[in-house]
Amino acid sequence: MTTEAELTGSAASAAPPPDIEEAEGKPAWGALLVVLAGLFIANIDFFIVNVAIPSLQRNMHATSAEIQLVAATFNIGLSAMLITGGRLGDLYGRRKVFSIGLGLFTLASLACGIAPNMGELIAARAVQGAAAALVIPQVLGILTTAYQGKARAVAFNAYGITMGASAVFGQLIGGLLIKADVFGWDWRTIFLINAPIGAVVLLLSPKTVPESRAEGHTGLDWTGVILVTAGLSAVVLPLVEGREQGWPTWTWECLMASVPLLAAFWYTQRRKAARNRSPLVHPSLFEDRAFGVGVVSLMVFFAAMASFFLVLALYLQEGRGLSALQSGLLFIPLGLGFFIGSAQAPKAAAKLGKQVLTVGAVLQAAGNIALAATAWQLDSSGAVGWCIPAMVLAGFGMGFVVAPLASLVLEGVAPQHAAAASGVFSTAQEMGNAIGIAVIGVVFFGVAGHHGSAHTYAHAFGSSLLVQAGICVLVAALVQLLPRKAETS
């Protein structure tokens, strides 16, 4: 029977050649930039589509149900397939699966961009989401196996910045693309822009990115794939669709069904691991407290972060009457704070270890509270520019958390589980997104009412921010459960 130690040794022996790293502990920028470019376009499509909603309604005569499905099908495909996507990389090669996923994502983006009707657009979005689930976990898997020591910390920091930047600037980039209206493409530009970027990344990938895979495992755990896909879909679908439809009976039935499905998934994973039969997610991953606690902390943090972007966009566009581009421009101060925080986070992490996450979460909570107070003070008539200082502070806090989080959580993961672990990591992020948007959406629209005014939107925005501040404080508390060894060197 192959032992865990033997598997670790064999994976290490199959590691890529040392020339992937440059001198002075910095990662080879070619490989890093290539995989992060693929990550950026796959992740930004979660956020950018919201900007296209008015154009879709106008040009495609889309119903509200169809608009919901444009977002929901991507989210469900992505969330449900991330764990499977990660495991496929471990088994068949992380670069290979990254390239296959990116090729499929690029083709699906083209299909979205040329879709003649809403039915074909929704179908293409589902494929986009599933393809993104093949791309995203491979990035962390590649970085985990390709880099060591300080180079890995730099690469993980760049990963965090890329993930955060795609969220922070999604609205601005989408607004600029639609405003430019290149060739009269309007909303189609946000999808078609993926094609040239995807093509360049696919061309460069085999020349710059090393191949890696887990040794000693054969075959995919199809029972695990079916159970985890069904279980996660049963969670994400009602969370994405529930509020808009008034939480009908089927949403609660799905949520209840997810419990036995996910319980059965975990049971089968433990049995397969005990028999050394290559489970989809090896239970030993969660024996590392840094990983287990870190995944929970990640999910809770992104519940606050994703919902922050939602309520900020709603407040600026619906409450204050700004266009998508105007509101996107107001995301720039948030992005400025994020990049400053991200740049300072590695130095702070070297001194503070895990407590850098605590500092970041508390700063974001403070920014949210200050922004809530500002929105209440402005009400319906004050200049929204007064929100900028609080947005910079909130963005700084986000950067302090997002940039070092992957390094702190994944540093103890064995190489043979690299992509599977990153699949779990990414799934926790997407689940946090869905949970946060569902919960904060209930708070926001509960205060704003069905026919919100500028006054009620300001109060709904402030109330939502206070709940998000509480979630950030919870993140700071969870960080204390991380072991001391989970600290960036």
UniProtKB/TrEMBL annotation:
InterPro entries: MFS (IPR011701), MFS_dom (IPR020846), MFS_trans_sf (IPR036259). Keywords: Antibiotic resistance, Membrane, Transmembrane, Transmembrane helix. It is a multi-pass membrane protein. CDD domains: MFS_MMR_MDR_like (cd17321). It is found in: Cell membrane. Residues 31-487 form the Major facilitator superfamily (MFS) profile domain. The chain crosses the membrane at residues 29-53, 97-116, 122-144, 156-178, 190-206, 218-237, 249-269, 290-316, 322-343, 355-377, 383-410, 431-451, 457-482. Signal peptide: none annotated. This is EmrB/QacA subfamily drug resistance transporter.
